[in-house]
């Protein structure tokens, strides 16, 4: 019985952290290119409502995920046009994107409120799912959980093992130097922004199609902001981002299991709901107290505009 409880908590933690991993990996690549996009919350919301609408209208879950990625990518490219081509302020534009995306998703999603989707069965990996305790938790999951692990592996390989990953990081460190040796800085930044939007859309699609599965206004519930915080507090290192995402998922799942078990806690329910956010930020702040490490890993040109003819 105890093993089953541990397995259930571990499985729920992984599921809860998956949308954060997807959104944060996209934001990590975007920021490594020197672009600060604060619109993850809005892009995740648009991805969630788009995926739900496509699947509810008869499309497959895979089609819903692709549609969500395209919709969020379009929003990210609009942000890119404002900040990379028109040189608008990245912070202000990102905040506007977040607010616009949340509002637009709420408007589009009105006809779909309280309309559930069929549950999607987990995908078990033969033999591995029979490992005691951790097997069912790790290898009997939704297909998108495995996709998130693949995304992390691809981002790690791209950033630290590929030539174009090195170029992207060079653009984030010194765009003028990268431009001087012949690289198209603006095009590379557009590609990074588009990837970030697509990953945020995938994270939103996971929530509305696989995790819940239903659409409700505000269902992203601040996860886009948490994903942004994870990237910074994890000092732009992918595996720290993953650890932070699962930390958030674990704290959220723990308080849900505590309430479900009927534990009488003499604290307001609002405080319990805020606990995962507060705990994640507090722990990650402690982890990232080394200011020199933050300066070492932070892209030097983050948030700074670049004009090729300047």
Automatic annotation (TrEMBL):
The chain crosses the membrane at residues 33-56, 63-84, 90-108, 144-160, 214-234, 241-258, 270-287. Pfam families: BPD_transp_2. GO terms for cellular component: plasma membrane. Its main location: membrane. One of its GO terms (molecular function) is transmembrane transporter activity. It is a multi-pass membrane protein. InterPro entries: ABC_transp_permease. This is ABC transporter permease.
């Amino acid at each position: 019985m105890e093993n089953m409880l541990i397995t259930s908590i571990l499985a729920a933690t992984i599921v809860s952290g998956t949308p954060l991993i997807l959104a944060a990996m996209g934001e990590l690549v975007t920021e490594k290119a020197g672009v600060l996009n604060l619109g993850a919350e809005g892009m995740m919301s648009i991805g969630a409502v788009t995926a739900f609408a496509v699947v509810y209208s008869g499309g497959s879950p895979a089609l819903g995920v692709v549609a969500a990625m395209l919709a969020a990518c379009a929003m990210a490219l609009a942000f890119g046009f404002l900040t990379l081509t028109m040189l608008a302020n990245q912070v202000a534009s990102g905040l506007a994107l977040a607010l616009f995306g949340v509002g637009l998703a709420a408007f589009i999603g009105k006809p779909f409120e309280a309309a559930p989707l069929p549950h999607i069965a987990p995908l078990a990996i033969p033999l591995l799912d029979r490992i005691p305790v951790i097997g069912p938790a790790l290898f009997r999951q939704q297909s998108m959980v495995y996709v998130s692990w693949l995304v992390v592996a691809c981002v790690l390989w791209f950033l630290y093992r590929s030539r174009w990953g090195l170029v992207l990081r060079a653009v984030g460190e010194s765009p003028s130097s990268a431009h001087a040796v012949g690289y198209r800085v603006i095009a590379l930044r557009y590609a990074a922004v588009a990837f970030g939007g697509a990953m945020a859309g995938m994270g939103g699609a996971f929530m509305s199609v696989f995790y819940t599965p239903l659409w409700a206004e505000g269902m992203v519930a601040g996860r886009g902001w948490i994903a942004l915080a994870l990237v910074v507090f994890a000092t732009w290192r992918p595996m720290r981002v993953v650890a932070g995402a699962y930390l958030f998922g674990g704290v959220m799942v723990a308080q849900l299991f505590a309430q479900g078990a009927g534990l009488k806690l003499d604290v307001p329910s609002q405080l319990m709901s805020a606990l995962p956010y507060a705990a994640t930020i507090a722990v990650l702040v402690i982890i990232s107290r080394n200011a020199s490490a933050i300066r070492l890993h932070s892209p030097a040109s983050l948030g700074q505009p670049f004009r090729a003819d300047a």
